[in-house]
Amino acid sequence: MSAAKLLTELNEQEITETLVGQLRKYIDVNQYEVDCKTDVLYTLNVTDPDINVVDLSNRKRGQGAFEVDILISKRGQNKLPLVVIELKSGGLTTHDLLTYGAKAQRHRLLYPFLRYGLLTTKHSHIARRFFVHGTEFDFYFTANKWPSEMIAEFCRFIVA
Questions:
Q1: Highest mean pLDDT out of 90-99, 122-131, 147-156
Q2: pTM tops 0.70
Q3: What architecture is domain 7-38+69-159?
């Protein structure tokens, strides 16, 4: 992303790729990974003969996993999810908050230490509905008209 472009001028995929690229500059790539559009387990049925409990890296959406927009995880045989960032480039509705909140709650059944957050790009302030329905989130950023310096600040906050 050029310094002149704002996040609001990009589509959701471009924003996701921009943030993933920037986050990779702020992490120790020997210990951590940043991925976009990846699946994170929310349930594990150990009585299912098709699930190999030793290797959890074969996660699939619709089979006990939800797709998340951005994931920071600890490297290893079974990547350990540490931070999830859900991106919303359009309006933020109560339904969105309830849906993302339910995903966060389900993910924390397996990963209780997981930090889960939301980033919106079309709002200049935090919507009041977030304080009523956003109880499952650890952070929420609005990125309306973010210059490149704000992306760096966001990345430093996330990896802290």
A1: 90-99
A2: yes
A3: 3-Layer(aba) Sandwich (3.40)
